[in-house]
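On clarity, I found the account of how folds are encoded harder to follow than it need be. Since the whole study asks how a given chain folds, the encoding of that fold should be made plain. For the editor and my fellow referees, an illustration may be useful. An entry of this sort, consisting of the sequence and the corresponding backbone structure tokens, reads as follows:

:::
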Amino acid sequence: MKKIGFLSFGHWSPSPQSATRSAQDVLFQSIDLAVAAEELGADGAYYRVHHFAQQLASPFPLLAAVGARTSRIEIGTGVIDMRYENPFYMVEDAGSADLISGGRLQLGAQGETDADMGRRHAEVFLHLLKGQGFAKPNPRPMFPNPPGLLRLEPHSAGLRDRIWWGSASNATAIWAAQQGMNLQSSTLKADESGEPFHVQQARQIRAYREAWATAGHGHSPRVSVSRSIFALTTDQDRAYFGRDDSQDQVGIIDNMRAVFGRSYAAEPEKLIEQLRADEAIAEADTLLLTVPNQLGVDYNAHVIENILRHIAPALGWR
């Protein structure tokens, strides 16, 4: 069995070909797609957070709204750039969204190097999530306080164990394991060996799990990978993705040699065999399907249903 969810990048564009022509369109359709995915039996609704662009940027109002409209599906991010976050305010927002959803939040975050402010913010955030008091109470409060130092509220017990770290290298995956965070690995990774993307990503996952075991945390970790996967079952599918003969790509991003994982688009029988050979998907317990959100809710629900109905059972994911 494998958890299967979607990951939306939340783009909008005024183009006549786009089903999301405004930020409001994206927000409402993001909620509607989560409702549809839950009805189809999917396990997760995840959203990319990207600043200074026509994409989703403020996740917590959206996560709370999705939590209020759904009852079972996991709700998460992939990922929040911690450089821009105030960890104190973030704890309050995350706690609120998690309580509204009934404890279904799966919060993915990301930083850069050891010296980066993103990691420093993440470390503060993780500490605050423990719910330990640190603030001196007002000696003349408007309402009575509990005894001792005060913590940030609202506090959601268990959220600390549902924090994920987006890792693009083996080293950052090991750091995430040491910190007791779950692992998110996307379709981009530092090219550390020249091997195919899925082989390098599988090795990253194994290194993460070894570091987790060494750290001696008291619970089992989770690992997600994301993929663009399209089962071609209709003429519309073939028109959109039928010419996609994708391969891994190597390039330079932020002065890092990176390998970008291929997309998958094929008839179900061929697609099943292609995915069976993906070592990283096999290693992960969670698969996030990156969806083309600008094609609208109905088509993306169809994309998700195709995987759940035609692909997942044959691979033992369902």
Summary: Residues 197-215 form the longest helix (19 residues). The chain has a mean pLDDT of 95. The two ends are 5 Å apart (CA to CA). Residues 3-136+146-315 form a domain with the TIM Barrel fold (CATH 3.20.20.30).
